[in-house]
Amino acid sequence: MLSSKAKYALRAATLLAEHYPAAGWTPTFLIAERERIPRKFLEAILVQLRDNGMVDSRRGSLGGHRLAREPSSISVADIIRVIDGPLALTPCASVTRFRPCIDCGDVNACRLRNLMREARDAVAEVLENRSLSSLAWPSGESTSAGERPSGLSQPAI
Q1: How far, in Å, CA of 100 to CA of 56, rounded?
Q2: Could you give the CA distance from residue 111 to residue 121 in angstroms, rounded to a whole number?
Q3: Domain-located, residue 42
Q4: Residue 43 maps to which CATH number?
Q5: pLDDT tens digit string along 54-88?
Q6: Of the candidates 37, 47, 44, 43, the residue with the CA atom closest to the CA atom of residue 7
Q7: What is the per-residue pLDDT for 152?
Q8: pLDDT > 90? residue 10
Q9: 92: which of 28, 52, 64, 137 is 20 to 30 A away, CA to CA?
Q10: Closest CA to 69 of 79, 58, 56
Q11: 63: helix, coil or strand?
């Protein structure tokens, strides 16, 4: 199940995608307010995203956060993996962090492993092919540097 922390991370990253690159730095308080995320919790999430190369941060009155790369290059799966870990339901089905299940005697003889791998592959197929751009602009409107799709206002910074 997707954690609240991962949902908050996706909402915050989507807001940063909406502001990319025209708005520059978005203050933490603005993200917290607009996305209704507890500020302390958001700060911890943004540090985790920063430490994994998805967000840049800057201190000071003109500081805040922004995406470290194009929103189209960051998948929903990337964010979830940073916050919640592997997409797989069981560790033996994970591609990125495989390990045998604690209660499994023989991973190769496990009757559930293939099913769990299929489930993982199906989830990964969807989440890896959805970028922050697709969440920020579901209608498919793309932006070029400095432009905003119609209907999106500049952030009040």
Answers
A1: 36
A2: 17
A3: yes
A4: 1.10.10.10
A5: 999 999 888 899 999 999 999 999 999 999 999 99
A6: 37
A7: 37
A8: yes
A9: 52
A10: 56
A11: coil
- Sorted by sequence, the CB contacts under 8 Å of residue 60 that are 6+ apart come out as none
What predicted TM-score, i.e. pTM, was given to this entire model? 0.82
Domains in the chain, number? 1
Domain that holds residue 99: 4-135
- Retrieve residue 144's tokens: 């070029």
- Tokens in use for 38? 């507890």
Q: CA–CA separation, 108 vs 105, rounded Å?
A: 9
Q: Give the pLDDT score at 141.
A: 60
Q: Indicate whether 16 belongs to any domain.
A: yes
116 lies in a domain?
Answer: yes
Q: What is the pLDDT of residues 99-133, one digit of tens each?
A: 888 888 788 888 899 999 999 999 999 999 999 99
Give a yes or no: residue 144 inside a domain. no
Give the helix ranges, DSSP H, for 1-155: 4-18, 28-35, 39-51, 76-84, 113-128, 132-136
